């Protein structure tokens, strides 16, 4: 059951006209290709963990609680290769010795973590869980990579989930998850891990930056999210006509539009904040949900479909009944 919700972005706003001059872009070019007008980038000294903490505090405030039994963090830009971010976050929040771990599924990370949290609650391992999704992709971008540079922003979103009865407002009703490792090299940071240390001569300095084959990823993202969304709708017994809001991973506007078209769901039911914040990785769905609540674009009783696609390849979808909720807005 969804009990609390919050999102945050760093204060620095980067408009299209402020992007590096050597990228040779302008506002019209970026908007036409991506649908993005602005994005938020962290300043030096701000990390993924800082955004995660702010979002977590907001979600706990929204939920009206200071206690949870477990903390999950979905990220692919952790503060350190080890330890995981979740135990550190739990400590900073004063949550004591609760179970805490990270989930790594790139831009599908939030949906995977949501399924993990729901399973933990169903298994009786926790009655209330804090789930945080946070990424700072601006720290991974190659200085000369215009194609990725115009797309990504930084942000975090968080939820508090509690035990409850199926069918109550806030219920997470069904999931569909999948992966295909054959596409792992199409969204990748090649260097910086154990493979790099095992074969250092194999990697160049630029391999420590984010790399993506955009055209191939587009086709996979549209088909996988659409197929997964239909699978979860079948599972829960909803038709596309019954879906009030679709909240997809905010990859770019063309992908969002294509998924809506594939599902025969009109644009006015597809939630999007990508024009203001860009692609924020694992944070994009909870950040979009938080933004939609603040803008009164999603209401209690709505049937909500979530769907995401990310590196790995990974993908996943979820269906939920939206509760009466306000966000712990902090920005």
TrEMBL record:
InterPro entries attached here? ACP_syn_III_C, ACP_syn_III_N, FabH, Thiolase-like
Q: What EC number(s) are associated with this protein in UniProt?
A: 2.3.1.180
The enzyme's main class, written as a single word, is transferase
The source's superkingdom equals: Bacteria
Its chief place of residence is cytoplasm
Among Pfam families, the record links this protein to: ACP_syn_III (PF08545), ACP_syn_III_C (PF08541)
CDD domains, per the entry: KAS_III
What protein does this entry describe? Beta-ketoacyl-[acyl-carrier-protein] synthase III
Q: In Gene Ontology terms, what is one molecular function of this protein? A: 3-oxoacyl-[acyl-carrier-protein] synthase activity
**Which parts of the sequence belong to the Beta-ketoacyl-[acyl-carrier-protein] synthase III C-terminal domain?**
233-322
According to the entry, every stretch annotated as the Beta-ketoacyl-[acyl-carrier-protein] synthase III N-terminal domain falls at 101-181
Q: Which residues form the active site?
A: 107, 249, 279
What does the record say about domains? The last Arg residue of the ACP-binding site is essential for the weak association between ACP/AcpP and FabH.
Q: In which pathway does it act?
A: Lipid metabolism; fatty acid biosynthesis
Task: State its location(s).
Answer: Cytoplasm
Q: Which family does it belong to?
A: Belongs to the thiolase-like superfamily. FabH family.
> Which BP terms does GO give this entry?
fatty acid biosynthetic process; secondary metabolite biosynthetic process
Q: What quaternary structure, including any partners, is listed in this protein's UniProt entry?
A: Homodimer.
Return the annotated region ranges for ACP-binding. Answer: 250-254
Recorded GO cellular component terms are: cytoplasm
Q: Which organism is it from?
A: Lentzea tibetensis
Catalyzed reaction equations? malonyl-[ACP] + acetyl-CoA + H(+) = 3-oxobutanoyl-[ACP] + CO2 + CoA
Listed A to Z, the keywords are: Acyltransferase, Cytoplasm, Fatty acid biosynthesis, Fatty acid metabolism, Lipid biosynthesis, Lipid metabolism, Multifunctional enzyme, Transferase
Function noted in UniProt = Catalyzes the condensation reaction of fatty acid synthesis by the addition to an acyl acceptor of two carbons from malonyl-ACP. Catalyzes the first condensation reaction which initiates fatty acid synthesis and may therefore play a role in governing the total rate of fatty acid production. Possesses both acetoacetyl-ACP synthase and acetyl transacylase activities. Its substrate specificity determines the biosynthesis of branched-chain and/or straight-chain of fatty acids.
């Amino acid at each position: 059951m969804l009990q609390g919700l919050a999102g945050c972005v760093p204060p620095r706003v980067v408009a299209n006209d402020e992007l590096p001059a050597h990228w040779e872009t302008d506002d019209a070019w970026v908007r036409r290709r991506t649908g993005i007008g602005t994005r938020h980038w962290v300043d030096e000294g701000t990390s993924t963990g800082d955004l995660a903490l702010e979002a977590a505090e907001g979600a706990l405030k929204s939920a009206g609680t200071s206690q949870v039994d477990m903390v999950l963090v979905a990220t692919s830009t952790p503060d350190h290769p080890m330890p995981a971010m979740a135990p550190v976050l739990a400590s900073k929040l004063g949550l004591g010795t609760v179970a805490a771990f990270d989930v790594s599924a790139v831009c599908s990370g939030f949906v995977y973590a949501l399924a993990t949290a729901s399973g933990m609650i169903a298994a009786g391992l926790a009655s209330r869980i804090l789930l945080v999704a946070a990424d700072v992709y601006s720290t991974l971008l190659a200085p000369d990579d215009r194609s990725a540079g115009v797309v990504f922003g930084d942000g975090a979103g968080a939820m508090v989930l509690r035990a409850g009865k199926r069918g109550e407002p806030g219920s997470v009703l069904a999931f569909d998850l999948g992966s295909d490792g054959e596409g792992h090299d199409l969204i990748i940071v090649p260097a910086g891990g154990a493979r790099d240390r095992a074969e250092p001569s194999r990697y160049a300095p630029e391999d420590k930056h984010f790399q993506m084959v955009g055209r191939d990823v587009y086709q996979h993202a549209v088909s996988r999210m659409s197929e997964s969304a239909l699978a979860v709708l079948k599972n829960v017994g909803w038709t596309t006509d019954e879906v009030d809001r679709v909240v997809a991973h905010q990859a770019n506007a063309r992908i969002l539009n294509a998924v809506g078209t594939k599902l025969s769901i009109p644009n006015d039911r597809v939630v999007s904040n990508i024009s203001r914040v860009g692609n924020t990785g694992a944070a994009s769905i909870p950040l979009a949900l938080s933004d939609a609540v603040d803008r009164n674009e999603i209401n209690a009783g709505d049937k909500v479909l979530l769907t995401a696609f990310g590196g790995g390849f990974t993908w996943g979808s979820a269906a939920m009944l939206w509760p009466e909720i306000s966000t712990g807005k902090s920005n």
